[in-house]
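Subject: Sanity check before I submit

Could someone independently write out the structure tokens for this chain? I want to compare against mine line by line before I put it in a report. The sequence has 278 residues.
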Amino acid sequence: MKILCPQCQQPLQQADKHWQCAQNHHFDRAKQGYTNLLLVQHKRSKIPGDDAQMVSARRRFLNQDFYRPLSQAINTLALKHADSKRKLVIIDAGCGEGYYTQQLAQACIAAEQSADITGIDISKFAVKAAAGRNKNIQWFVANSSHLPVEPNSNDLVLSLFSPLPEQEFKRVLKNDGLLIVASTGQRHLIELREKLYQTVSSEALDPCQKLAAHFTKSHEQNISYTLDLNSSESITDLLSMTPHYWRATVEKKQQLSQLSQLTVTIDINLYGLQLKQP
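---
Independent answer below. Compare away.
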């Protein structure tokens, strides 16, 4: 898959320690193995995305395979769309610290499916952590609304608990490609939320409605189970990797940090969506 220059949209060529286009725009490759292609005008804030604390918490939590059932469901859905006769081109748009991207890469190897995988995230801290997981995956700091890849180039686009820039997904996906979306269900982490808020909302995003202009649903799956957290660190890490960390009061977060055991409900909806044909 060709990587495009975020400034002029010309293909970037990789040299030893940098990427460069024909217009001589130059992007250094960090020693950790990732490249920052995020332009200032594509930033939402001075330091966009998850901060170092959230990334570290998510990494510790996911490394315990608490969300492995979701990862396995993603891998199964992705490989169903694969063709062993050709390389599978994949972009994880909002890869975070790389857990799901790396698990998919391993699943492709186990299935003897050749794959060209790219992970992007707007958080430099997340991509830096992701780059440590797998040197065979291309990792970039970039905005999912400005993916640095060619039009109609991807067999699979992953958006897992991430923004859904419909037009951009439409642009980069092949006509027969698959968009895989994971979003939280109504009861996701209900026990955690009940400890943080007086009133708990039961509303859940329906990504299919948001994407309805250009995509049609071809797969829907609910992944539900309970998770026993038996340490204050795991409970605190779970909170720190969610938006609830910023919404809850200091008092409620302190109360939660004193717990040594908590059972929470995992309720996640997984979708496969394909482009509507003209």
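---
OP: Matches mine. For the report I'm noting this point. The CA atoms of residues 33 and 243 lie 28 Å apart.
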